[in-house]
Each structure stands twice: as C-alpha cells, then as structure tokens.
Write a structure and sequence with these properties.
Blueprint (H helix, E strand, L loop, with lengths): L2 E3 L9 H5 L10 E3 L7 H13 L2 H10 L7 H11 L2 H4 L7 E5 L2 E5 L9 H19 L3 E6 L3 H10 L5 E8 L5 H8 L6 E7 L2 H13 L1 H6 L2 E2 L6 H18 L7 E6 L4 H11 L4 E8 L4 H8 L1 E3 L22 H8 L4 H15 L1 E3 L8 H4 L3 E5 L2 H15 L5 H10 L9 E5 L7 H8 L20 E4 L2 H10 L3
Parallel strand pairs: 4-14, 5-6, 5-8, 6-7, 7-15, 9-10, 9-14, 10-13
Antiparallel strand pairs: 1-2, 3-4, 11-12
The structure holds pyridoxal-5'-phosphate (PLP).
C-alpha cells in the first residue's frame, strides 16, 4: 500500500515514511492510493476474530491491509501490546451499551485519559517507539493543547524511548481535572509548559518554532496532531468492532453518529464505509461551532475567524476549521488533487471559504457517501444529559450528548444507530452538575489526582523562550 497527497503529489510513500511526518510537502494530507475492499467472507472472518480473539487481533487484520513495511509478527505484537483490557478497562475494549429505542453508545473513552483520542494515540506511542528505534533516531514532539489532545499524547508517549513531549497549554485555563491529569506525570520525557496567554498564543509559539527550519531539523521537532494518517487508521478499527457488536449478519446495516470537531473521528468512519463496512448513515454532530453542519446543509465551507469561534461546554469540538475535512473532499471530487489544491490552498487562503452547492458532486455527500449532519447547543446539551440521566440512569459527557441529540434526528426503522461516546462525564464535571445536580462517577484510578504533586514550567508567550527550554532539555 502506497500513500499520496490530497493536493496532487503522487510520489508514492510507504506507511513508515508518513508515520513521523505531518503534512505532505505540497501542503496536502496523506491518503492511501486506494481503499482495500473487504468482501463478505472477510467481514465474516473478522466478525469471528473480534468475538473470539479480541480487538487487538481485529486491529492487526485491518492495519495489515495498510501497512506493508512493518513485519507481520512485529505488527501483531504492537497491536497486542496496545489494546489490552488493562489499559482500556474491558476485554471488548469498545463495549456497546443500549441507550434507548435503537440507539446504542459505543464506549471509546475508557483509556488512560478517558477520551477517545487514547484509542489512536496509544497505538501511535508504540509505533513511534518501534520506528524510531529501528532508525536509530529521536523525536521531540511539540504541541499546544487546551485539554484532550495533549493529555492523550503524554499518556501515549510517557516512558517511550527516543521520544520527548513538550506540551504547551494556556496557564490556568484547563479544568482542574485536566491539569491534574497532565501535570502529575513525572516521567523524564514529558515536559508540561503553562503559557501566560490563551490557546492561540500556545499555537502561535508552536508554529513559530516549526517555521524555524534550522531549529526544527537540529532538534528533530515533530507533532502528533489529528491529521496524522496513523491516528486516523487506528480509529477505523472501532467502526468495525461497533458493527460486529450491533449486528449478527453482514446483511444488516448500522448508522453512526459522531461528535465532531476536526473531522478526524468521522473520517475514519468514511474510510471504513469505503472499505465496504455496511453503513447506512454517517451523521456529523457539531456544537455551536457548526462549520461542518453548515457545509453538509448548504455546500458552503466557511472557516471561522478566532472571534467567531465559540468557547462551549463541549470544548474538544471548539474548532474554527476542520483539519481532516480535506480528505473527504478529495474523495468527493473524484480524487482530483488539482481541484482540492485550488479549494484548500487558494480559495480558503484568499476568502476563507468555498462553495460546492452548485457542484454536481455535492449531492453525493448524502446519496453516495451517506453523510447527514446536525448541531447541538449548550441548552440542548444540558437537556440531553438531564434526560438520559433521569430516564435511563446513564450519565453521558457533553460531547457524547451532542451526538445523542443529533442521532435522535436521523433514526431509521431497523437500523441500529451507534453514537460514539468520545469522553467520560468526569472530565466535564461542571456541566454535568449543571444538568443533573449530581457529581459524575470518578474511576478509582483518578480519585484524588488533584492533590498529587505537579510538574510544570510556567513561561511567557514567547517562541524564543520555548526554543531555549527545548535546547536545554535535549541533552
Ligand atoms: C477530539 C474530540 C472530539 C472531536 O474529534 P474530531 O476527530 O476532532 O472530530 C470530540 N469529542 C471529544 C471528547 C474529543 O476529545
């Protein structure tokens, strides 16, 4: 399997070439040359593997179709080491539970940081360690976070050989729980940096360092953001695992509703569907930051400026643009890299938007690719959390609540609707208390984490300061 860029560069690359890379050199995102097709017999075999041998074996089967430059035995070992009941809480790894009517919740948030990003990031940590050792190289991951991504990256990379993580976050702006999760890590290769400023200041510092090409090369600076293909690929597996739990035969279809921000999670659903997974609808649920809902309703993709990006109670979906969306548009436009380049490289840079409403392919979003969309606001979120708690005794987090709200708008008789549970309520306790009057349950391993000693360096919002810090800690 070779990989190409969404902006037309077709110099083919292997999986491990793009594993440690971010964007393609032409500014595009990597996608496989074609999607492997899964026939009925293979689907049945995988169903059996998931039920009898478990998630790690299923992951190995799916990843092997996309990775041909890691020996099979090594790949199997990496999957087995990643997807354990010890790390993810249950043998199913992503258990399905019934909510109401034909709505099910697929639990993706029982990993180390209680959000779905662990599903991919835990594998990425093991893949990075493996590949860096094989090359005899080191990598310094530099990132900016307002919560979930940074903690998932740190818990994936902690103690890994050849990797250091330098994670900036806005000083005093994360929830006490999130701060405790990150700042209590004492591993030698994890560095928390609290910046005097807001999230955008953190991101600007990261950009400034990445734009200093000499520094970037000398200190081997890399990222783990959501455009990384390996992260997306790892997420494809749980769409299959959800399907196998919700159905008994391959003639049945299911739909998925996915709380969405950067379009990474649901893009993995699109890939699964392209491979032949029997999916009826892929429903995009957004919060007040409704860039994606607007596109699927009108055909206009309009990036927001910072002032129009809302701070919401489902903060991991507070985006101004959807970084992975380019991947879907590439498929939608018949993989025309020149056209994608003119939309994402030129039109967005020039006017912050493009309009496909008159393009013949726009109808394909729904008709051919199964996409639907909807939006949920703070009051919807509160009402949904309260309702599922009072009627069903189930507490769901704020992002998952956005998913449930929108899922209810797209039910079809006889088609199970699987809502992806992207975080546990304890991470967003304030809103849960507002909705239900009760504190969410806290898994035993997180009891008292706010009282643990913290390891964090406070810093001015200054790119030179972080360069100096990195240089001092890379010896
Ligand atoms: C990151 C995140 C999302 C959004 O996922 P995307 O891949 O960016 O669409 C939704 N919910 C939670 C809890 C998250 O951490």
């Amino acid at each position: 399997m070779k990989y190409i860029s969404t902006r037309g560069d077709h110099s083919p690359k292997h999986f491990c070439d793009i594993l440690l890379e971010g964007l393609a050199p032409d500014g595009g995102l990597y996608l496989p040359e074609s999607y492997p097709h899964v026939d009925d017999a293979t689907l049945s075999r995988w169903r059996d593997i998931y039920h009898k041998q478990g998630y790690a074996e299923l992951a190995f089967e799916i990843l092997s179709l996309y990775i041909d430059d890691i020996p099979a035995a090594d790949m199997k070992a990496l999957c087995a080491k990643t997807y354990t009941a010890e790390v993810f809480g249950t043998g199913e790894i992503v258990p399905l539970r019934h909510l109401e009517n034909n709505i099910w919740l697929e639990a993706l948030s029982n990993g180390p940081t209680l959000a779905f990003k662990d599903m991919a990031m835990q594998l990425l940590g093991n893949l990075f360690e493996y590949e860096l050792a094989r090359r005899g190289e080191e990598l310094n991951i530099l990132g900016a976070t307002s919560g979930d991504t940074g903690s998932a990256a740190e818990y994936a990379m902690r103690g890994k050989k050849g990797v250091r993580v330098f994670m900036t976050s806005p000083y005093g702006r994360m929830s006490p729980f999130q701060q405790a999760q990150m700042f209590s890590l004492m591993d030698d290769n994890i560095f928390n940096i609290a910046v005097d400023g807001v999230f955008d200041d953190c991101q600007d510092m990261v950009k400034a360092v990445s734009n200093d090409l000499d520094f970037k090369r000398q200190y081997k600076i890399g990222t783990v953001n959501s455009i990384n293909w390996a992260r997306l690929l790892a997420q494809v597996v749980y769409y299959f695992a959800g399907y196998f739990q919700a159905t008994e035969t391959n003639v049945e279809k299911v739909s998925f509703t996915v709380p969405s921000g950067n379009f990474g999670n649901i893009c993995a659903g699109h890939v699964a569907r392209m491979m032949g997974l029997p999916v009826a609808k892929l429903v995009v649920a957004t919060n007040e930051n409704d860039v994606l809902d607007e596109f699927f309703k009108t055909g206009v993709y309009r990036v927001r400026v910072s002032a129009d990006t809302h701070e919401t109670s489902s903060p991991s979906m507070d985006i101004s643009k959807a970084s992975n969306f380019e991947r879907f548009i590439f498929d939608l436009l018949g993989r025309d890299g020149a056209r994608v380049k003119s939309l994402f490289g030129d039109a967005l840079a020039r006017s912050g938007q493009f309009d496909l409403s008159q393009h013949p392919a726009f109808n394909d979003c729904r008709m051919r690719y199964g996409f639907e969309s909807g939006k949920s606001t703070h009051s919807d979120r509160l009402a949904t959390i309260k309702d599922t708690f009072e009627r069903k005794g189930m507490m769901i987090d704020t992002h998952t609540a956005d998913g449930v709200k929108v899922a209810r708008e797209y039910l079809q008789a006889g088609v199970p609707m699987i809502v992806l549970e992207t975080a546990l309520p304890i991470k967003f306790a304030e809103t849960i208390v507002e909705a239900t009057g009760q504190q969410p349950d806290r898994p035993a391993k997180f009891v008292g984490i706010e009282d643990l000693p913290k390891r964090v360096t406070r810093m001015a919002a200054d790119a030179q300061a972080i360069k100096t810090f990195i240089a001092e800690h890379c010896v």
